[in-house]
Amino acid sequence: MVPVSDRREFRDLASPEEAHEVVAGLDIDPAPETVPLSDARDRVLAERVDADIDVPGFDRASMDGYAVRARDTFGADEADPVALSVAGEVHAGEEPDVTVESGSVAEISTGAVMPPGADAVVMVERTTETDDGVEIRTSVAPGDNVMLAGADIAAGARALGPGTRITPREIGLLSALGVDEVPVRGRPRVGILSTGDELVRPGNPLDSAAGQIYDVNSYTLAGAVAEAGGDPVMYPHAGDDYAEMERLLHEAADECDLVLSSGSTSASAVDVIYRVIEERGELRLHGVAVKPGKPMLVGTIGDSAYVGLPGYPVSALTIFQTFVAPAVRDAAGRDPPQTATVSGTMAVQERYGEGRRRLMPAGLIEDGTGSLLVYPVDKGSGATTSLVDADGFVDVPPGTDYLAEGETVDVTLFSPAVRPPTLLGMGEDDPLLSRLLDTIDRPRYLPLGSTEGLRRLGNGVPDAAVVAGPTASDHDTADIGGWQREWGLIVGPESDVAGLGDLVDGDYRFVNRDTASGLRRSFDDELDALGDERGVGRAEVIDAIDGYELTTKAHESPARKVLAGDVDAGLGLRATAAKLGLGFVPLGTQPVRVLANPDRRGKASVGALAETLDNLDSLTDGMAGMESQ
């Protein structure tokens, strides 16, 4: 038995290739099952289905016209038609009550049963009704315009084979055969456990002051399991109650083919997992030489397979898709997704100095020619928004120093349904911008701040950058429009802060914006002007503001802290203060400009953005302090 201290240090990290082999060797194959035809879509046939009946089950007319004995029409043409009597008519869904004798015909509808005696159909367009019957102006051969019984599929024929994925097409065929229950491959039941006292299930109240966060992994992994063809089962949140964690691990192992846990990285939690594995199963792998994903556990608990995933959402999803999803798909009989990997070129250089293999989160965007560009998305493993800001990951081999700009890379998509955004924007965070983006089909916007947005636009990554305040650019850009916004100090409704001087001279707690924000630039300029007016430097003015160095990234964050009573004033917009019912001390207005990448000015999405910017008045309605420009 390996000492616990050795286990936690991941002394013998497995290679990614070894990890694939270990996970692929887990037995998670479920038993076949039979499901109603109505529930069979997207399932996989477990065995061959043969036709028990002919389809169609009768000879039927394939068009409207007259059922005839073919020999009665021989020699007929436009110049010399054959006159025949009409013995009756046959409609679809009815059993014929007429027999076609020599010299007679029966009027017939498409899909109707061929009446006795008839062996062909003359289309109605090649006939003429007369007082005595009908004239046939063409000759037909036996079987013309008739679908014979079993022509679609005959009784005894192989209809569908095992392993067939059932789509609406297959459901149509099964329906035609009268099959109401379908033998399908079982979907592996995958139990999902998230641990940690800080986790709260969505829908329940959240106490942020106590450090609580919503449980992201359970729902993310459940969606990924279902997409891979598994049947996800979410178990109650165990918190850090280790007795409860142990009970849930046992319960999930008894009920599921595979158990997934995420997090559980504390020493005590790892001890629980080890104890359960050692008592009822086998530990097959502890730690993988890959980033992210080093703390990965693989083993068995009784008859169930077990995989422990990292706690950060992006890391958990990446490791699941890389190592576990292929095993789930295989157990469910699913083929690998055909669009799981795409190729593109690096938009910028990405340096990487570690020796471990890296699964680099990456985003995708098309350039002006329609070629796919790849850019790194790195907000840190704990950033949940990376789940939607990144489209997949690039597998960077160990020992790679950097990925060069223009280098071709393969991106493994997080989902086969992933599509690159039509528009990629970066820059300032702004409430009017949110409305503007709602008018564009599938945009992606990264609120990195004016300075960073402008820098990345200069590097050629986004389609457009949104820049606020006194921010200059040395790069070639195309200004496609913008607006004015009023900014200042957001304060409580009863605050006695009346200006910037009060903030400097009074005993008030303040929260600022980060240095990449255009608001911060304008605020610092006002502090410089106040210092000049008082004959002191900016440093002295800054030192007098309690909380100047306390910064936030989002435009509403300072106002939220004021609303919560954590601070007395925050840097923000009049529109935000009005929205939250707070007081506002105006300090000025600043322009917000949307700058397009000149090489992508012809993209349809950039054109749509420019068109909306030309008609901003409807979007500014009800937004205090916002004016189109």
From TrEMBL:
GO terms for cellular component: cytoplasm. Transmembrane segments: none annotated. Residues 191-330 form the MoaB/Mog domain. InterPro entries: MoaB/Mog-like_dom_sf, MoaB/Mog_dom, MoCF_biosynth_CS, MoeA-like, MoeA_C_domain_IV, MoeA_C_domain_IV_sf, MoeA_linker/N, MoeA_linker/N_sf. It comes from the Archaea. One of its GO terms (biological process) is Mo-molybdopterin cofactor biosynthetic process. GO terms for molecular function: molybdopterin molybdotransferase activity. Keywords: Molybdenum cofactor biosynthesis. Pathway: Cofactor biosynthesis; molybdopterin biosynthesis. It holds the Pfam family MoeA_N. PANTHER family: GEPHYRIN, MOLYBDOPTERIN BIOSYNTHESIS PROTEIN. This is Molybdopterin biosynthesis protein MoeA/LysR substrate binding-domain-containing protein. It comes from Haloarcula vallismortis ATCC 29715. The lineage of its organism: Archaea, Methanobacteriati, Methanobacteriota, Stenosarchaea group, Halobacteria.
